[in-house]
Structure formats: structure tokens, C-alpha cells
Sequence to fold (518 residues):
Amino acid sequence: MSAVPHSHLQNFAWSPEADRWRNRYAGLSEQLQRERGVALGSAWQGDALPMPQWVVLNQVLARDLDWPEDWYQGQQALNVFSGNTVWPGMSPFASVYSGHQFGVWAGQLGDGRALLLGELDSPIGPQEVQLKGAGATPYSRRADGRAVLRSSIREFLCSEAMHGLGIPTTRALSLVASPQPVRRETIETAAVVARVAPSFIRFGHFEHFAHSGEEGHHEALQALVDFVVTHHYPELQSSPNRALALLDAVVARTAELMAHWQSVGFCHGVMNTDNMSILGLTIDYGPFGFLDAFDPNHICNHSDDRGRYSWNNQPQIGYWNLRALAQALLPLIPEAKDDSQIVIDVLQTYEQRFPQAMRARWRAKLGLQTEQEDDGKLAVELLQAMAAGKADFTITFRRLCEFRSDVAPDHPANAPVRDLFLDRAAFDAWALQYAERLKAEGSVDAERAVRMRRVNPVYVLRNHMAQVAIQQAQKGDYSEVQRLYQLLQTPFDEQPGAEADAGFPPDWAQAIEVSCSS
Ligand code: AMP
Ligand code: MG
Fold:
């Protein structure tokens, strides 16, 4: 083979073959528009973003998509991922949805700053690629369609942190920054995150077509259910009632997701129905936070003054949101026309599914291998003891991995975890129960420690970690963003040089305020 001339390398512009883009959602919209006069959104284009620069790239995900290592080289890829141009085969689209925000019906919302570039056929299945912050769309409601660098770094890092933790989430592929000014409380600068997921459909998409009462919306609602079932829940295709079967599956996934969040101390911050994924993914990272000092009533979103979305409330809000979804699906369930009990029954499975999922998570976190009635109680009592002295959530569970059940709770070997509790007597009382429980199932401490270290992370994306990365990035240094991205890929393994990331947050972390401003 002859050598590639140098000039060709400089002009390198890789792109996936045009026929790998499928764009089925935009296709469905076109079909509905033709047949029913109803669209699911609008074909749209990004606004020009001046002087884009890569901040961080997710090469692990790019590899999963089967892209070459150097896919991002050359100006074209940078322009695609900042919304300035498209690759052949992409058909950018902004979708419409509605939703309940903070418990109140908010009416029409939509992709106000998100732009679906297309759906790529890949070895990990069809994946939608979406830009966030690529400019105003028909759904921007007078907002600017932009996202600032600060919140985009948080979204990129947390998406991948959650993925590293094994929690269902939309992914982040790239982050681009631009000097373009964006007005928030102060003047900040623009950034664009590329997100990847099998689908970005939210509960709010269903609510939109259920509640408008407009002509053709009922058919659009049915088409939406059929689309989601066919492409994302194919096992439900032959169900006698697809909408009811879909509700059942989403109840199950949401219960699992809530248990996942609780188990790592993740607080989403804005659990509005438009921020709930129909696939049970964590979506829309805004004022999220991981618990530092454990306070079950912790509110991570400064704009949430009543604490509707506090850590402790999340599972209940998940249920509330599922109710809103059920309400939206009701018109498609003829059996529920006179008596909605059949739907309520499905919805109410959450009352068993969530606690069951939660108990399974606590059990894993405690290294328990057998199931017992009062495992939930054991976990709750630990949390109560932690709350009394605001023990650090992540550190407590990680140190518990090394708990020695063969010596007394107050033995010096147990001091690292015991000393985290203000009320040592409360810890001792709990630890005795725990040790007894471990003994009863013939648990071996060393083996249990290995198991526990696989589910109790050393590293989570604490606010102060993101904050340091943001401050450096705002000065043009992206190395801390890149370092955290790497670190959070494997959050269960201690990594050399990252001792500070495994430690307690600094005092200034308490003063960090994150709000809906993003
Ligand atoms: P959120 O609660 O942040 O998920 O946003 C709620 C709604 O507001 C969604 O429809 C967003 O697309 C829209 N939105 C938020 N920020 C902006 C912005 N800067 N420009 C346009 N739309 C926005
Ligand atoms: Mg949102």
C-alpha cells in the first residue's frame, strides 16, 4: 500500500457512512404529518457556534459505536459536534413534549436546546445522537437555546460517572466549548454536549399528545406507544394492550432506577415528568448532586425551596411521575374506560417493585448474599445512625467493606468506619446486628470485602470536584475535566494519585449552590 500523502492527513474528515443513519423518530413524525397532520417535532438546524474547541472526548463510547480512534480529527467533526454542520445522512430534528414541573402542569415544552442529529446503526444497537446547547429551536420559549460550559461539564462528567457506576443513563460523547457569551446570572460562555442514548423519549412526550385534545393527537399518542414498543420494548409487541404493557415495563425500570440512585446517594434535582426517560435512563443532568454528609432530606437544587426533589423524596416522586404517565396512556386503554382499576393495579406494582429493588441494592452494598425479611430494616437503621452524625455517604459504605465481623465493633480494626459515626454507641449496636447477620449466612469477611468493593464506589462526582474542573476549564485548561472523566470510568477501583478524590469534601464544598440555571 502506498503511503498516504501528508496533505491528505491534514484534510482528514472521517464520517460514518451516510446509510448508517436511520432517524426513525423524524421518519415517524413525517409519516404522522402526512397522514394525520400532526408532527412530533420539527426538522431543524443548529445555530452557528463560533470558534469551537474540543474540551473532552469519550473515546470509549466512540469505540463502542465502532468509530475509528481519530474520528474527531479535522474541522468537520468539530463542526458537526458544535452544531455548525451535519454529516451526510443526519437529519436534525427537535421534538415536542410537555410535562409537569414541580408538580404543576406546565403545558408545552420540548427540545428547547436539544437537537437530535440522527440515529446511528451501531454494534451496541441503534443510538440516537443529540446535541444539547446547539441554539434556539421552535420549542425554546424565548430562551436562548444555549448551555453554558459550567453545566455542560457537569452533564458530561456525570453521565459517564453514572455509567461507570453501572446506572442506566444517557451517555456523553463529546463536549465542545466556544467563546460565545451566554447570559445567565453572570455572562458565561457557550458549550455543546453530544449525548447518546437509544432514545430520548420522555414521559412528557406522551403527556403532550394525551392532554392537548387537538385533532390527530390521539393517533399520534398510539403511534408513539407503538414506536417505543417496537423499537425499545420488542418483547411487548404481542401484548393484548401495548400501552398497559408499556406502563408495566416502565414502572419496573423506574423502580430499578430509583433504587440505583438512592444506593449511591445521587440526587437528580429536577425530577419533572419531562426529565423522566421512557427507557428508565437517568436524563437531563442539571442541578444534580451526590450526597456528601448524609442527610436524607438533602436538597441539591437551590431552586427547589420546598424540597420536593430531596434525596428521600425521589422514590415517591418516581411514583408520582409514573402516575402522570399512566394518566397520559389512559386513552389508549379501552379496558379502563369505565373503571381505571386495571391501570391502578399496574401502577401500584411500584409499591412492591421499588422496595424490592431497594432491598436488593442495600443487600449488595452490605455484602449480604442471602435474603431475609428484615434486610431493609438493617439498612434503614444504618442510615439512621449515619444521619444522626451526618456521616459521609460514600466513605461510610466504602469503609464498611473492610468491617471486621470477627472482632467487636469497637475493636481498633473497625475504627476507620466506626469513627465516622458521631454516636459510636449507635454504630456499635448496629454493627453487632450486622455481624450476627453475616455470621448467620456464613459470610467470610475477605470475600465480602471484595463483593462490597464492586458496588460501593471510591469515587463519585462530588460537587466540589466538578467545580474545580469547571473553574480551570473557564480559564481554558481542560485537563481536570479530562482527568475526572478518566477517573470516573472505574469508580470502584482505587487509583494512584486520586487519594483526594476519595476523601472528604473540603469545607468550601458546602457553600456551592447549584440551581436550574444552566
Ligand atoms: P429543564 O428543566 O432544564 O430540563 O428544562 C425544561 C424545559 O426548558 C425544556 O423544554 C428545555 O428544553 C427548556 N430549556 C431549558 N433551558 C433552555 C435554554 N437555555 N434555551 C431553550 N430552552 C431551554
Ligand atoms: Mg429537561
In short: The pocket of magnesium ion (ligand 2) is lined by residues 274-275, 284 (CB under 6 Å). The mean pLDDT is 96. The chain has three domains: 6-199, 206-358, 372-453.
